[in-house]
Amino acid sequence: MDMRIFQVRSNKALPHVGSILIASPLLYDYHFARSVVLMVTHNIEGSMGIVMNKNFRYLIALNQLVPKLAAVPAIPIFKGGPVDRDTIFFLHVLGHLKGALDLGNGLYLNGDFSAVIQYILNGNPVEGFIRFFAGYAGWEHEQLEKEIDDDSWMVGEGTKTHLLDEDYHNLWFNSMNELGKPYSLWATYPQYPSCN
Question: Hey, which residues does 42 pair with through a beta bridge?
Answer without folding.
Answer: 47
